[in-house]
Amino acid sequence: DAKTTQPNSMESNEEEPVHLPCNHSTISGTDYIHWYRQLPSQGPEYVIHGLTSNVNNRMASLAIAEDRKSSTLILHRATLRDAAVYYCILREAGKLIFGQGTTLQVKP
Amino acid sequence: EAGVAQSPRYKIIEKRQSVAFWCNPISGHATLYWYQQILGQGPKLLIQFQNNGVVDDSQLPKDRFSAERLKGVDSTLKIQPAKLEDSAVYLCASSLGVTPRADTQYFGPGTRLTVL
Question: B109 — contact with chain A (CB < 8 Å)?
């Protein structure tokens, strides 16, 4: 299974941008990069996904390196409600294989 | 639009007892997933259905776990008999399909199982 590597935890201040990194050096040409997040005591929720080009939606932006071996999830203005575990996942054959994720703490 | 519904939200049982979880996916979603999430870990896929057929159950401990999706809508996951290590949150998710444009997964709130 293709794997991703993320820092275990990160901290951010409220209303500042947050850049969450993800390494996926063994990514194949057809693997999509997905990001999900899991707030405390809730199921995961979809954030964003992409294949080659950078992507933006109302929640976040996804910057994908030109060689696709890494990507960065960007939260433009962190709020306290963004405190969660963020999972970077490579979609393989329709499956999502979750790793440990990055626990994001947002300080007021 | 209603989300993925799961019940019960919490369940406490003794080891060797049996338990069942129920999931109602988002209307029109053909693909349904059951995940197990042990405390401190990411969710692990147990079984994936496409309509009422099993697509992937490679991680399902088939000696004690079973799942079905009758009529391609609701699904139940059963554990019989339960072991201590089955204590976890069981998450149900659904998606329109499995192609890249349709595979965004929507998760329910989960059922927290404690086996004593």
Answer: yes
